[in-house]
Fold this sequence. Notes:
The complex is a heterodimer. Chain A has helices at 2-17, 24-41, 46-68, 77-99, 125-147, 149-159, 161-166, 171-197, 203-218, 223-243, 250-262; strands at 115-117, 122-124. Chain A is mainly alpha-helical. Chain A has a domain at 2-101 and 123-201. In chain A, α1 (2-17) runs antiparallel to α8 (171-197) and α2 (24-41) crosses α3 (46-68). Chain B is an all-alpha fold. Helices cover 78% and strands 1% of the residues of chain B. Chain B has helices at residues 2-18, 21-43, 51-69, 73-95, 100-120, 122-125, 147-170, 172-182, 184-190, 194-220, 230-243, 250-268, 272-286, 290-302, and strands at 131-132, 222-223. Chain B has a two-stranded antiparallel sheet with strand order 1-2. Chain B is globular. Classes of the chains: A mainly alpha, B mainly alpha. The A-B interface holds A 14, 18-20, 22, 68, 71-72, 75, 77-79, 81-83, 85-90, 92-94, 96-97, 205, 209, 212-213, 215-216, 220, 246-247, 249-250, 253-254, 256-257, 260-261, 264, 271 and B 41, 47, 49, 94, 97-98, 100-102, 104-106, 108-110, 112-113, 115-117, 119-120, 230-231, 234, 237-238, 241, 245, 271, 273-274, 276-281, 283-285, 288.
Amino acid sequence: MLYALMGLGLSLVTGVLNIPNFAHGALFAVGAYVLVALSGFIGGNFWIALLGAPLAAAFLGFLIEYLGIRRLYAAGHDYQLLFTFGLALIVPEVIILVWGPVGISYLPPPILRGGVDLGFTFYPKYRLFVMLAAGLLVLMTWLFLERTRYGAIMRAGIENKEMVSLLGIDVHKLFTAAFALGAYLAGIAGALTAPIRGLNPQMGGDMLGIAFVVVALGGLGNLLGAIAAGLLIGIAQAVVAAYWTEASTVVIFAVMAAVLLIRPQGLFGIR
Amino acid sequence: MRKEIVLLLISVVLLPFIVRPAIATEIWIFAMFGLGLNLLLGYTGLLSFGQATFFGSAAYVAGWLLKHYGINVLFALAVGTGVGALSAALVGYLCVQRSGLYFIMLTFALNQFFYFTAYQWTSVTGGEDGMPGIPRPSLLGLDFSKPIVYYAFVSAIFLLSLWAMKRIVEAPLGKILQAIRENEVRAAAVGYDVPRFKLAAFVIGGAFSGAAGVLYAMLFGIVPLEAIGFVFSGNVVFATLIGGSGSLYGPIIGSVVFIWLSESMSTIWARWPMLLGIAFVIVVLFLRGGVVEAWHRFSRLRA
């Protein structure tokens, strides 16, 4: 489910803005670290921090688009890539400067510690919560894109930018909003991950590859595809991890390579 | 063109007196790496963000053979070139059907695939610690353990590969690749099998990157995990772009600037990747077009 969240955000950004966003992983890490910082700040309240962390990521995303990427739409993918890649280099270093190079572990709030007995297996409460929360977020994003006017504009932006701007819609605002929403999704995915896997400065880079795989599998700009691919990758990884732990990361990329051999356009890709 | 070659020969001779021989060697290795990327990026218009895949794979395979079987340096170089070409053929086969963003993302994702394989396969690659203990055996009585001798060897290989690359881009193949860069649809309409030529560019570019990878492994005596990581892929893209991707000499200038900058930054501050990232952002926002174009602009101002 977390992969679906990451992939959905990245798919939105790449689809609407048509840029390679290498900063997506960095925003993921920002979400996680801001969660820790906020909950330390306000007496360890997990819930307020969980609300605030993705907003911080979204705000950072807004700044990145408004101050940087906006100037680069005409510049070609190579410069857009270098810009976002540069940001992806800066963020981990800032994290190291502030929090140090060693990973941090972070406990879920007391109410979500321990496990629940599901009858057939014993499952940690927090993971269950993450699954539900991520599922709910994916659903809400989906409803937003599918059922609201703004969502319709965003989807239209993926399909045909010139047409959208001809219809009198400010594409620049649309781009900024899409980037901020993508950043929000990355940030909340990071925040939700923090209590499961802990935090380290390189967490963004590791997640970035997975997010790209999800988007490539789901088809560029295909939001439903990104959700499905995220689930597929998550399940594949979990299954392999149960039998052969070392290969659990590699399998993600192996699945991608296999799918692309058979369907070069991705599972649901049209382009 | 003559002027460039003379200038280049002078810099090859002078460089080890200006910076430490190890850094001078690294500069030419990185320039070879950049030459390989530039065939894709500059000449074919394919932004490969996974060039470290070929560099790193070649370094690991040749490094392993050097370490455990004590093979000849030239043989190691040949193996590395082959491994670079082969891994590029694999990656290229999966990627050439796609274009634009998709292409970039695929080269990157496949780079991650190789990276995590190297990361997890600790019994061979040493995982995070890298693969240490790679020897630099002598060749024909030349003692490569002396830095300056190894420098001369690397520069010779570099000049040789520059010559080869010049031949390639001036040959019909190079012209076809440029035609694909300018207008893919038209190149296909004229009758060229575009994916096949893209694949050829991949394989050749991979071969150059692979050779560079072997020289790199022998230079430092270790294959660090970073050699196959995506940051490395990004660095070479950056170096090529600051040098100017349109010209044959662009990546060479770029890697001189890049290696020199990153070496001097890394001695100043342990958090130098941050400075590097800031440099990326500044160059992209304000200095697009790279050193070569800046030079052109400057000389036009004078004229």
